[in-house]
Design a protein that fits this description.
Four Helix Bundle (Hemerythrin (Met), subunit A), about 5% strand, about 55% helix, two-stranded antiparallel ribbon, about 160 residues, mainly alpha, 5 helices
């Protein structure tokens, strides 16, 4: 190898990024578990959506978004496609998404992370920037859920325990 052909190492590998995301997902699951059933679907502050509605958005983004990246399909963002009527149902859907994310992730070759993509037929970026958006969006909505829990007098899970 010559000096001009230096081997570069990524800051983070795809496997590490998936582990990071799944750590956030595990924490979000614990936040859902902390909610009383009634408040999960009915409690709101300042016009924000309920926690159940926020989680439904996360479910509408994670697997469908990754499916579009892995399979190069096109789907519209559909936050109302699931009939979520109980905390148990919400947790079941969350748990079903976890292995599906792992399955789809395995279909994405490492070189694809730098390629352009358009998720949900409208959001342009690279594969890696789209995935970071999915993670950032989850963190944002989990922060809203933390505010709800604290206002209900419930101590949320520690954010660093992922």
């Amino acid at each position: 190898m010559t000096q001009t052909q230096q081997e570069t190492k990524p800051v983070i590998t795809p496997t590490q990024l998936l582990e990071h995301w799944q750590g956030h997902r595990a924490l979000t699951r614990r936040v859902i578990e902390a909610f009383p059933e009634k408040e999960l679907f009915n409690y709101s502050i300042g016009g924000m959506r309920t926690c159940a509605a926020l989680i439904q958005e996360l479910l509408a983004i994670a697997v469908p978004g990754l499916r579009q990246i892995a399979l190069e399909s096109t789907e519209k963002l559909d936050e109302d496609s699931k009939d979520i009527n109980s905390k148990g149902n919400l947790l079941q859907l969350w748990d079903e998404a976890t292995p599906e994310l792992n399955r789809l992730w395995a279909l994405i070759p490492e070189e694809k992370f730098q390629q352009p993509t358009v998720t949900f037929g409208q959001y342009e970026g690279t594969v890696w920037s789209s995935i970071l958006y999915f993670i950032d969006n989850e963190i944002h909505h989990r922060g809203q859920a933390y505010v709800y829990l604290r206002s209900l007098g419930i101590e949320p899970p520690y954010f660093w325990e992922r």
